[in-house]
Amino acid sequence: MGSSDPIPTFAPPSGMHPHHASTIQNIIARLFPIPSVLALILSGSIAHGFATAESDVDVLVVLTEEAYAERQQTGEINFVDAEVATYPGGFVDGKYLSLGFLREVAARGSEPARFALEGAVVLFDRIGGGALEDVLRRAVRYPVEDKRERVVRFRAQLDAWRCFCGEARQKGNAYWLGLAATKLVLFGGRLILAENEVLYPYHKWFLRVLEGVKEKPEGLMEAIKRLVEDPSEENVEAFYELVKGFRDWPQTPNRWGAQFMRDTELTWMSGHAPVDDL
To answer: What sequence ranges are listed for the domain Polymerase nucleotidyl transferase (predicted)?
Structure first.
């Protein structure tokens, strides 16, 4: 397949909005003739099945390693293109990467980085040999080998942010209380996602993905709604006990405070990602 070959025709799946399909065809036509573009991947809300009629079109542009390195040097690693959109307010949101980058995601990517590739649709592929399909398949695998360690770390965070909710309430610090309640929901939810071996999608789709898992405490989503809207002591404790009692979660042999320090306050020393970003 070369840049002089006919532009591939996108075959939209049943149920896709026609304006999304035509916009996708337009971005294929724009990028396919560029020799340094090895592949184009549909991602984002459309690929995940979360799109509305107003959603933008997210794509991943796979470049040669040389072209990707150049863009890393200049900082030009993403783009927004409204000209190819066929609907009011629409645009294509694109990110540049390389096959090497995708291999890094498959080997050691964070859960959000992996989730970003779930449901990905290859729009065209010059790499060949099944290499792109193989790396995408490996990239979206839940890292089961790290599951127990992550559960231990998330469980410590659950205890920490429950404690901080009480501290914030006593001090009358509304900002601290709002943050602590949100973090309590985050790590309680991440425990449930880990139990189901489901990737954490980052904040935007977090509650939607969490709601869809099979194994979760009865009334979980309602408890989250009450806690977010009103982080009272009653709602904090109800959510905490609901998650805590759902499983016999493995815990750190030390106090949760030491684990919290390692995962939150001391990551700058180790160079490891904060626990929020795993």
So the answer is: 24-85
Cα→Cα distances 211→166, 245, 274, Å: 27, 18, 25
Euclidean distance between CA atoms 82 and 91, whole angstroms: 4
Q: Indicate whether 74 and 31 sit together in one domain.
A: yes
Does residue 154 share a domain with residue 135?
A: no
Q: For residues 29 and 70, what is the distance between their CA atoms, to the nearest angstrom?
A: 23
Element (H, E) at 229: helix 220-229
Where is the domain boundary, 140, 160, 176?
140
Task: Evaluate the CA torsion angle 122, 126, 128, 134 in order and state its sign.
Answer: negative
Q: Using CB atoms within 10 A of its CB, is residue 82 exposed (0-12), middle (13-18) or buried (19+)? A: exposed
Kindly state whether residues 121 and 155 are assigned to the same domain: no
The per-residue b/e assignment along 85-96, b for 16 or more CB within 10 angstroms, e otherwise, is bebeebbbebbb
Which range of residues forms the domain containing residue 229? 144-269
Per-residue pLDDT of 31-69, as tens digits, reads 999 999 999 999 999 999 999 999 999 999 999 999 999
pLDDT, tens digit, 9 for 90 and up, residues 147-180:
999 999 999 999 999 999 999 999 999 999 999 9
Place 1 in a pLDDT band, splitting at 50, 70 and 90. Answer: low
For residue 210, being part of any structural domain is answered with yes
Residues in CB range of 213: below 8 A, 6 or more apart: 192, 193, 196, 198
How large is the average pLDDT for residues 63-84? 97
- Is the pLDDT at 273 greater than 90? The verdict is no
Considering 94, 125, 140, which residue would you say is the last residue of a domain?
140
Long-range contacts of 161-167 (CB under 8 A, 24+ apart): 161/187, 162/236, 162/237, 162/240, 165/231, 165/233, 165/236, 166/233, 166/236
The structure tokens listed for 128 are 């060949």
Please indicate, yes or no, if residue 125 is contained in any of the structural domains.
Answer: yes
Identify whether the C-beta of residue 80 lies closer than 8 Å to the C-beta of residue 93: yes
